[in-house]
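User: tokens in, sequence out, please.
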């Protein structure tokens, strides 16, 4: 029944003229993305950690792989490299024999820091003007510092704790022998020594000892 004029007075809002709207259905929550759950989130996080650790491991192993490739290029086995490292660390030097001819062999040993210092001191005093003179001095001093045996001739290498006089006397003997060699023999020995030095350089390059 509609309200009468008497019942509808101006300013009287106690009676509703228009019925209130009916409440609509409750909003439907947004659907959860497929796979998005606490368990899947933990799985994704774990996979990221494992991938990161794998990348770090690969990066850490790369120097060792590169080192082994360099050894392979020089035809050096890991066993040989390990022996060189052990001998240098525990004996103070490494020696190796090379053929000079079918009947003659030469034995070289790694040089000491004092051999390098001796060479530098001589160069500072001699001051060779030409590069070939400089190289000749370095070559002969290096050969005298490494020559342990040639054929049946053996040379003395005093112990590290020997007197400076004994060590320098032994070196002078070896240097005099080197300077008295026929030039073709000297050049052949220098080729062999360069091969030996390159082998030692590859094996004992920076960071290499950490591989053993």
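Assistant: Sequence out:
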């Amino acid at each position: 029944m509609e309200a009468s004029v008497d019942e509808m007075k101006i300013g009287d809002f106690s009676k509703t003229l228009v019925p209130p709207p009916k409440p609509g259905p409750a909003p439907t929550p947004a659907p959860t993305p497929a796979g998005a759950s606490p368990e899947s989130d933990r799985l994704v996080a774990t996979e990221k950690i494992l991938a990161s650790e794998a990348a770090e491991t690969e990066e850490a192993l790369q120097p060792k792989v590169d080192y082994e490739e360099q050894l392979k290029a020089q035809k050096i086995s890991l066993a040989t490299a390990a022996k060189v490292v052990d001998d240098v660390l525990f004996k103070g030097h490494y020696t190796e024999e090379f053929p000079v001819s079918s009947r003659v062999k030469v034995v070289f040993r790694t040089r000491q820091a004092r051999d390098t210092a001796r060479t530098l001191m001589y160069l500072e005093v001699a001051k060779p003007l030409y590069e070939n003179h400089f190289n000749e001095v370095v070559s002969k001093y290096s050969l005298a510092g490494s020559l342990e045996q040639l054929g049946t001739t053996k040379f003395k290498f005093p112990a590290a704790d020997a007197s400076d006089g004994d060590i320098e006397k032994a070196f002078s003997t070896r240097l005099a022998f080197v300077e008295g060699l026929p030039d073709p023999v000297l050049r052949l020995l220098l080729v062999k020594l360069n091969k030996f030095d390159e082998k030692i350089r590859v094996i004992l390059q920076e960071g290499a000892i950490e591989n053993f």
